[in-house]
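Journal club prep, notes for RB
We'll compare a predicted complex against what the paper describes. Inputs for the pyridoxal-5'-phosphate case:
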Amino acid sequence: MPDQFTAIASAHEKVAAAERFGTPCYLYDAGEIERQYSGLRSRLDDRMQIYFSLKANPNVSIIAKLFDLGASAEVSSLVELHTALRAGVPGHRILFLGPGKSRAEIEACLEHDVRAIICESAGELDLIDQIARGLGVTADVVLRVNASFEVKGSGLTMGGKPRQFGIDEQQLFSDDAFRRERPHVRLMGVQAYMGTRILLEATIVENTRRIFELAEQIAAHLDFHLELVDVGGGLGVAYFKGEHDLDIELLAADLNEQIAAFASRRPGTEIVMELGRYLVATCGTYVTRVRYVKESLGERFAVTDGGTNHHMAAIGIGSIGKRNFPIAALRTDGDTELVPWNVTGPLCTPNDTIGKAVQLPADLAPGDLIAVERSGAYGVTASPVHFLSHGYPAEVLLEGGAAVLVRHRDAPEDLMSRQILHRFAHASSDATPITVPVAPEGAS
Ligand SMILES: *Cc1c(COP(=O)(O)O)cnc(C)c1O
């Protein structure tokens, strides 16, 4: 590994951070973000821009780190938009996407002059036109297409199925709604997102090739100048036994061929890849502390202070039955005998299981730290943090030997303050029945 990279955090640093900021917490290793981003960036044709999908991890310091490395931002809500802006990403390097955009979100896109709004329906096109007219501007709009092809090999496939996302490929070619003149909308690009967790290089290359082709056909049919093509991405990382990380060398070599071919046909067209999981999954460690160890009907349980309320994905992603994330005891001393443990959390549901029959030290005891690795994407952001009112865990960024808190743990007051205590008079607690009219006067 080239030594200009920030060092990857050691187990000692992770233990120190967990001791200092408390558990449960997420640790994000900036050195690993850099390694992952630069590994792809340095091999990929310069003409392919990388946008970070905030959905995977919306922490403002993570976005700032990726932006400093060179990434732009793809956002899907008002707060994600403001988070990207706060991280320093300028509007012209932000794409806004999502099937249910509000009026306020569209207005914010236009006020902050985002690179483009990625539009998912004819109704949305009309609304963008109307809002842009009101603001006296023209909106740059990319059409999201629900492609009719489907390339096998991803955790969740998008193409070729009825979806709330995007506009069916067939409709773009047959429905006049998309040809209608909208004076405040400037169609200028095409986007498609074919699935997530893709671990086959050939699938990504084939998706990209077909999206380039489709984008050209759509622009020709709807008669607009193709300024931008967003080929989605969906690059995966290995989580489970039997999975392998993408061979980035091989992927980049084959993708670069497609990029070069497209760029020679369309030299001025911007090309974009939007990546969430791939950029941040490997940087994150979810750290919990063992509270109790017990045995039930011959199985060992380690009950920890954090669970699926912070890490829903650990129940198993897009798979039948549960498979374990990479889980280990976070210890800095030597080898110990490993035996199977069930790692569970504080929730009152059997689903609150972070790992089943995980190989952990036989002498695991209360106070031990447990690390769930590869948890930087769709971790706490995609989890039911309010379940049993535990709230958000602390988030900590590790970089070059330093550890910095980048999100406060929710305090009980934070959680309590959102609720409003109200009792209607007739529900008074003295249990005396009160006569309440059941129908308004005059009603029969
Ligand atoms: C979720 C999502 C992404 C990010 O997906 P990853 O698989 O995490 O890279 C990108 N684009 C769209 C449209 C998405 O919905």
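Talking point for the session: The first helix runs from residue 11 to 21.
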